């Protein structure tokens, strides 16, 4: 079996890998590159646990082929903190106890980052619809929404 | 050392605060390792072949072509999992559920499995396994399954709990009855009676992380299992029993768990992974797809419940009865029994009777789902209570307060209650601002109560004081939602040291004594009790060491604020010794300092909640929007209030999904139509409002800090609270859960037009 | 499976012509990759058209808009001129899935997937949109309603590709709207969908209208009689009731996991009435 050679950028680093045509970007991240922060909750784009940012847009990495990442910029949860400094969203998720089991958390953080990148001062309704592609079964979303609101406030300077 | 578990009021320094959890950073950076995030050298990919039939005899399975495929290292069937049950029916049922032996009992029932070098080879191999099925008539509906004409799943099952013993096999596996008094006389006394039948559809726990494990069996018979589970000690026990292994030879490590809610209390495919590894001689990773999770793991019961409640004009309930039929999947269990026990647990009743029937159907084996069986019973009872209050012209909260159980009440399932929170949660609801808020057109408000037993169980902890005075706490109850933070708080509280100096970890099965699993809302209750006991034992050791260091009697050493203090007029000039100083000296005073505890954590206090909900129903489409939701629940003592609130909110959200949209939909062919998150509709963020919480603290007398379990009760009231709200909004009593838009619209259309 | 990313439509078409096996066109992939997860799925060739020259943007011309087949629905939502001209089409496109799905999914893909419940299709049909189809024998332009012929089946030939969707320039006093019913607020497939497109005369009377329904028949239903019922009216209550009745009557739905026959019929009328009202307001009707 010959693989497809892919050159891409992941969290700012140039990365090359070989993958089969059938493999999704999620498969590549988890099984070939050891980036297991993105989770497979459904494999069909319904839960958002595998969310990554591809060329500036939030996607489900389970619905992107590994081969499609050729020449792209991929951002994953592993690249969210800068060194030992957590992103404000990460800090606020911790402070607000916005996670229980935590398996949806990487996807929520990527989705929330994409949301705030596009809309720095969202209303509660905009947050709720912006995060509707991410399922959480533990929290009832209350503390997640509050964490995102608080992070937005902080990122906007106050 | 004897342990005094009784409650003592005290001022807390750590307990009740809201620090960041110890496992938090791992979880926001993607480093936390869940079931599927672990790999072993030489690992194979496992896959399971599942029955496409709801009910079929397995005539033969030919695995030769799959075995011959290049890259396939093992194929297993029931033949590789010999029956070691020796007459133990529950052992046999568990084995049969992991791998069908003679019949496939549901769409998704495992019939064979492969281990191959990669996913594509495993997928190809599954297609090469030839199973010859003799398709049999099936039954999936709980009411149809009890009919004499229904296809019988097992010709060896005769209804238990009835005299004389039946002579014909039945899908009703067992009958259980609870209650006291004379209900017939009670109904004679009633001025008003409400009698209705209710149905609830089957729902799934819906954890976001599918079941996943890595199994590795060595040639010498030792084995390791990495798995997402609510109870790794229980998984070890069950896997060892099913596979005929010594318990000591199987080491199970619980991964981080991506939700369980009861669904990860049962082994499903872990024994199969071990069997594959044993046969292949290599580690095997087995991860369920979402489709497999829905088809073959853990749904709750579908139910059908008849309720009758009577009351006098003065608002006193004179009698209450219920008959409950709960689906169990293909194997007998106690789901209806739990429903029958919980039905009327909120009330102080003179005459009460409940009867539960365990019903076998061609659906996956029912598993525990958060306060298992209680929400459905509460839906029926609390709907009828509301209707009765309306008939009497009494406010529904006041009606419940008048009849609420209290300390000394003999519960409907037998025991006499100690101090309990049903009255206080109702009184808090009565005065809550939510109750006074105005409602608009097509809007309605509902409320309901809920009860859960809470469990204690076998628990073991190790508390090690490290040489720098920091503390490592090893617990054996899996942390499903922040328990490590809570247990660190408890250790810090008891030792009198800062939270930041305590690190709690979940130990594997080889390094700690047996623990029951995290179920029954027992994780924080039982492990905190054992932690307090461990800490007290460690304090004893440290008092001894301090006495040695000072060369005084231990009776003259007390432990206060994280340090040993000498008391008595001859020693009070001695400066206190901190935990750090004692720990640093430990090598010279007797070696490592540790406190250990093993116990059966008795006395889990029962738990009650009252929920209030506002909805708006679109009368033209039947669509329902949750406008406002309030949870009021007794926590005994909230150790980490954030995670207590989280349990309240999460349970309410699951209940909202169950009430409105979640259900297993089966086709005529007995196959599940919606095994995915697209059509099995759990609430999304935009479906819900903020969920307000109010924590009441009525101390549990049987826990040193008064802690009660909090995890499960929050899912009990929502079905009824929302049904009451919808019924009030549309003026029609809703009796079938979920109240999906088509059901609401059909109910509205069935009303005679004014 | 072979993965190819051609740079031209000709190359894409040639790949499809030459393959002996089962081939699929990949645009956003939000349907194809879901299908590919099934153990029954087999594909020999996947042709990714996102690098094909000329498919990546929305062009505004004197005649209207040409939406390239590789344009994601999120990009449609960000296109101010398109949104101003065809708000109903854009809102329908933006209803497909989550933010994650929006980043990838396309209206051409939504059309080719041929689901009876596709959200963008009723709005496109109501809008009178056309599909530009290219293949080995050249290019042809067909009404979008001619693309799906049955659930999961299209009228396209083996090597044909939808290169673009065309929408007309809007006459004055025009408006369109799309509404769907789903049990949740997001992430669901439409149980019923209704698209309405209309143009008013200077007095605010409906001059022309198109009404299309989704998820109530094997393919999208263009309900001419319902449109006729509002032409010549100012959407008075009686006209809206007639519209709703005719829409309900035009449904040929099934009972399935998402809804019942009775529910779909009734709600189709309700949504058509509500969508007509919105379209009318957008057209400037009083």
Explain the layout of strands and helices.
The complex is a heterotrimer of chains A (158), B (754) and C (286).
Chain A: E1 4-10, E2 13-19, H1 25-32, E3 51-54, E4 57-60, E5 73-75, H2 88-95, H3 105-118, H4 124-130, H5 142-155
Parallel strand pairs in A: 1-5
Antiparallel strand pairs in A: 1-2, 3-4, 3-5
Helix pairs in contact in A: 2-5
Chain B: H1 24-28, E1 44-50, E2 56-62, H2 64-68, E3 72-76, H3 89-98, E4 103-104, E5 110-116, H4 119-128, E6 130-135, H5 142-145, E7 172-180, H6 183-189, E8 192-200, E9 212-217, E10 223-227, H7 232-243, E11 250-254, H8 270-280, E12 284-287, H9 290-296, E13 303-311, E14 317-327, H10 335-342, E15 352-359, H11 374-392, H12 396-403, H13 422-430, H14 433-436, E16 443-452, E17 457-465, E18 471-475, H15 483-495, E19 502-506, H16 523-550, E20 557-560, E21 563-566, E22 577-578, H17 579-584, H18 586-589, E23 593-601, E24 607-617, E25 624-634, H19 641-660, E26 691-696, H20 718-730, E27 736-737, H21 741-749
Parallel strand pairs in B: 1-12, 8-27, 10-11, 14-15, 18-19, 25-26
Antiparallel strand pairs in B: 1-5, 2-4, 2-6, 3-5, 7-15, 8-13, 9-10, 9-12, 13-14, 16-24, 17-18, 17-23, 20-21, 21-22, 24-25
Chain C: E1 2-4, H1 9-18, E2 23-26, H2 32-36, E3 45-48, E4 58-60, E5 64-68, H3 73-77, H4 80-85, H5 87-94, H6 99-102, H7 107-112, H8 120-126, E6 130-135, E7 138-143, E8 148-150, E9 153-154, E10 161-168, E11 174-181, E12 192-200, E13 206-214, E14 221-222, H9 224-230, H10 237-250, H11 261-282
Parallel strand pairs in C: 1-3, 2-3
Antiparallel strand pairs in C: 4-5, 5-10, 6-7, 6-10, 8-9, 11-12, 12-13, 13-14
Helix pairs in contact in C: 5-8, 9-10, 10-11
Spatial order of the strands forming the largest sheet of chain B: 3-5-1-12-9-10-11
Q: What is the H level of CATH, i.e. the homologous superfamily of the largest domain in chain B?
A: Aldehyde oxidase/xanthine dehydrogenase, molybdopterin binding domain
Computed over alpha carbons, the radius of gyration of chain C is 19 Å
Annotation field: number of helices of chain C = 11
How does the overall form of chain B come out from the CA principal axes?
A: globular
What is the CATH class name of the largest domain in chain C?
Alpha Beta
Order of strands across the main sheet of chain C: 4-5-10-6-7
- Per DSSP E runs of 2 or more residues, the count of β-strands of chain C stands at 14
Give the second-level CATH assignment, the architecture of the largest domain in chain B.
Answer: 2-Layer Sandwich
Mean pLDDT of chain C: 97
Q: Please outline the major beta sheet of chain C.
A: 5 strands, antiparallel
- Structural class of chain B, please? alpha+beta
The most extensive interface between chains reads: A-B, 57 and 56 residues
* Percent strand of chain B: 15-25%
Structural class of chain C: alpha+beta
CATH topology call of the largest domain in chain C: Uridine Diphospho-n-acetylenolpyruvylglucosamine Reductase, domain 3
Order of helices and strands of chain C: EHEHEEEHHHHHHEEEEEEEEEHHH
Helix content of chain B: 25-40%
